[in-house]
Amino acid sequence: MTALTLSTAGAATLRADALVVGIAKGAKGPVVAPGAEAVDKAFDGKLATVLETLGAAGAEGEVTKLPAPSGLKVPVVVAVGLGPVPEKDGAYDAEALRRAAGSAARALNGSKKAGFALPTESTEDAEAIAEGALLGAYSFTAYQGGENKLAPKGKKDNGPKLPLAEVVLLGTKPRDKAFKAAAERATAVVEEINRARDLINTPPNDLYPESFAAVATAAGKEHGIKVQVLDEKALVKGGFGGLLGVGQGSTHGPRLVRLGYTHPKAEKTLALVGKGITYDSGGISLKPAGHNETMKCDMSGAAAVFAAVVAASRLGLQVNVTGWLALAENMPSGNATRPGDVLHMYSGKTVEVLNTDAEGRLVLADALTRASEENPDAIVDVATLTGAMVLALGNRTFGVMANDDAFRTAIHEIAEEVGEASWPMPLPADLRKGMDSPTADIANMGERMGGGLVAGLFLQEFVGEGIAWAHLDIAGPAFHEGAPYGYTPKGGTGSAVRTLVKLAERTAAGDLG
């Protein structure tokens, strides 16, 4: 994990490998952003002109490196685009700062130390820059850089570039309680997001229900979280037919993991439920070629829930948070559930399985019922649930459904506040009829059109009466297959963690009723 340091040092006096400054897109060319005054002075007031000559315009995500002049103690200046010059109050949006810091940190892979002299008018700005830089510095190298036994003796392979080792936030106050709290929060949240990213990126031959449960158990011991793991025998005894039905085709048996963080002064309880399909082949309803390669990411919801519970503990939030990880591997075999089978769910309902690739809703249903038994004040489930949601909202936006309009609105607003794109989606009652089954209480499939909403309606059937519930379908933003951008890496992103942590903070503060 990249180290984070607060510093009152001036940009001109900092000794580091690089100095990051911001430029914005003005009406007549790039404009040097606040925080870079000393750097601009070192360029005789011509930093914007030099950057424009090099082709920089100040557009979001644009990174330009140039040699530092003699007035600075660093060898390189990195100018990162912030987008258009703010029209209102001259204040830069937190997400613009977050993305710019992330772009700069990615460009500095292999460096030991970099100063960030981006606009910092408040602790909120400092926290956004810290988050962006720490998220942008992430890289997953656990399976790279090993010893090459075929290489000549004494010659080592060049391993992958290590991420930026230290981020120094200039223009901050290390002894100020508010700045220290902002830095500590950013560090804790990002470390857990990066933990979620690591889990998502881990190959499925190493991450399966039992090993995921072991990771959660170890983290629970470290952070004072009570962890309970239900193995196959316990699931059979408890009647968890959804988890068992999905997992029975694999040699790796399913697990249901309960994470319990409690605070002695808490007045509210928030339950988080995550889909944890550690690999999804589609089962007997096998996915076509080209759709299997990234299915290690189908446990992203469980990773987000796990990370959020640990973050809540690390931050000492005055709210009880339970996390439910519904873990299974969906594989085809002679033991696998078949289309047409009927599963007896933990709730007592029966489900006719029409498509074994609609498995996430089956494991979530059992977990939602179990979470409801503890009567929390609210339940939020997170899942890479449907391709239909990706078709509706694209690769960067997750859908939010709920049985309570005010709760759905609150989560949407929280997500937008923390920089996670989301959109409120309905649960049309007319789509429920499509899941009627002549054999069971309900089928796991309904109408093809509006499939993401149909999945939400299915899940709603398993939520306890009177409990506020929301469903986040993160199928689009959970795993990024394209080139990195801003603070978003290639691979697992840790989508929804920031939203869940902020929701827990709001619940602790009593802001959600």
Please give the structural blueprint:
Layout: E1 3-7, E2 18-26, E3 29-32, H1 37-42, H2 47-53, E4 63-67, E5 76-84, H3 94-107, E6 113-117, H4 123-136, E7 166-170, H5 177-201, H6 209-223, E8 226-230, H7 232-238, H8 241-247, E9 255-261, E10 269-280, H9 300-315, E11 320-330, E12 342-344, E13 350-352, H10 360-372, E14 378-383, H11 387-393, E15 398-402, H12 405-418, E16 422-424, E17 442-443, H13 451-460, E18 468-473, E19 479-480, E20 491-492, H14 497-509
Parallel strand pairs: 1-7, 2-5, 2-6, 6-7, 10-11, 10-14, 13-17, 14-18, 15-16
Antiparallel strand pairs: 2-3, 4-5, 8-9, 9-11, 12-13, 15-18, 19-20
Q: Keywords, please?
A:
eight-stranded mixed β-sheet; 14 helices; seven-stranded mixed β-sheet; alpha/beta; 513 residues
Q: Could you describe the 3D structure shown?
A:
The longest helix is centred in the middle third of the chain and has 25 residues, at 177-201. The mean pLDDT is 96. Helix 9 (300-315) crosses helix 14. It is elongated, with a radius of gyration of 24 Å. The chain is an alpha/beta fold and 513 residues long. The strands form four sheets. An eight-stranded mixed β-sheet has the order 8-9-11-10-14-18-15-16, sandwiched between helices. Strands 1, 2, 3, 4, 5, 6 and 7 form a seven-stranded mixed β-sheet that branches. Helices cover 33% and strands 21% of the residues. It has helices at 37-42, 47-53, 94-107, 123-136, 177-201, 209-223, 232-238, 241-247, 300-315, 360-372, 387-393, 405-418, 451-460, 497-509, and strands at 3-7, 18-26, 29-32, 63-67, 76-84, 113-117, 166-170, 226-230, 255-261, 269-280, 320-330, 342-344, 350-352, 378-383, 398-402, 422-424, 442-443, 468-473, 479-480, 491-492.
